[in-house]
Amino acid sequence: MKTSGEYGLSSSTDSRFLAVGYAGEALILDASAVDAPPQQVSAQDQCWTGPQRAVFAGPRGIEVYDVITATRRVLIDGASHPECLVRRP
């Protein structure tokens, strides 16, 4: 599972969704629906917190993204990155 860095691949906790991270963006793919278009999300890093939710670090703070509804909300405004989103050397 990808926990930090600009590029990577990670799966949701139920392995249904894949997130491909690259240069401040993430493409969310539904592995159970190959024909479904990917969802594109602007984010610096991401980690999965459940079968359909990811946490992203962005310029506004920490945000939660719900894949099913394709919505994001600020969880913590202006916060630093949590441990799962801290870049490691």
Short account of what is shown:
Helix content is 0%, strand content 48%. The chain has no helices and eight strands. Mean pLDDT is 82; it is low at 1-5.
Topology:
Elements: E1 8-11, E2 17-22, E3 25-30, E4 39-42, E5 45-48, E6 53-58, E7 61-66, E8 71-77
Biggest beta-sheet profile: 4 strands, antiparallel
Structural class, by secondary structure, is mainly beta
Number of strands: 8
Residue fraction in strands: over 45%
Cα-based radius of gyration, to the nearest Å:
12 Å
Please, how many helices?
A: 0
Average pLDDT taken over every residue: 82
Helix content: under 10%
| Count of spatially separate domains | 1
Structure description:
- This protein has strands at residues 8-11, 17-22, 25-30, 39-42, 45-48, 53-58, 61-66, 71-77.
- With 89 residues, the chain is mainly beta.
- The protein has one domain (8-85).
- It is globular, with a radius of gyration of 12 Å.
- 20% of the residues are buried.
- The model is unreliable at 1-5 (pLDDT under 50).
Question: Which labels suit this protein?
Answer:
four-stranded antiparallel β-sheet, 0% helix, disordered N terminus, mainly beta, single chain
